[in-house]
Specification:
Layout: H1 2-27, H2 40-45, H3 59-71, H4 84-115, H5 117-130, H6 139-146, H7 149-174, H8 178-186, H9 191-229, H10 234-243, H11 247-275
Helix pairs in contact: 3-11, 4-5, 4-7, 4-9, 4-10, 6-7, 7-9, 9-10, 9-11, 10-11
Length: 279
Amino acid sequence: MHNTQALRAALLSLGLFVLLIGFWHLATLPKAAEDAGVSAEYAALMGSANQSDSGLPSPGMIWETIVQQLSDPFYDAGPNDKGIGIQLAYSLGRVLLGFALAALVAIPLGFVIGMSPVVSRALDPYVQLLRPISPLAWMPLALYIIKDSSTSAIFVIFICSLWPMLINTVYGVASVKRDWLNVARTLEVSPLRKALQVVLPAAAPTILTGMRISMGIAWLVIVAAEMLIGGTGIGYFVWNEWNNLSLSNVIFAILMIGIVGMVLDAGFGWLGRLVAYRE
């Protein structure tokens, strides 16, 4: 039964993909020069003989761009001409560093807030005040204080990754069953051992969910942040290719952003299944 559903889902997904590519191909067919009131010789001379009505690249042009970009993804021909592998490496490095710094702050702080109602009430106004602020709103302040664009982007990733991890950790720790904590108290387990052997395993699925949400937001935000700071990264690559009017490379970069985001999400989904438990 499960295999049948999986096969039907795969066939439906494949059908939707073929339908999308077919519609895209029809929408980007080259316009006839005579229909536009221009002679074929003049259109060929001006290089617009194969231009579509919409101006968008066809699926075939995107495929050629994919093959060209992936044939040498790590080439470096100067500040404004680097391979997609280098650009993704810069973006992933910033995301992972900002995400790791956020985890170092959010998870221990979430434990403290979740285990102490007094601390929770004291810090809740600050969390509620700072949490809705867009991460990009911090960028001008970060650039002024840090005076380094790349480090400022890491700071923005830190900010946007912090809140989902903190809130989920607080919720996970505060939701640990009282019975388990009472047993630990009866056995006179030390606070550190209780946190590591009772609270952490029980709250781990919720914490991983927060980390998964944080990573998704971080990968979204880095594209916009790198468009602002320039220099390197997949966001800068998209903006630079737009300035070069290369829509094929823009669409190729969008595909790469989606694929990398999907892989990151799948990784955290796998980690979440590892720490899941049944009562």
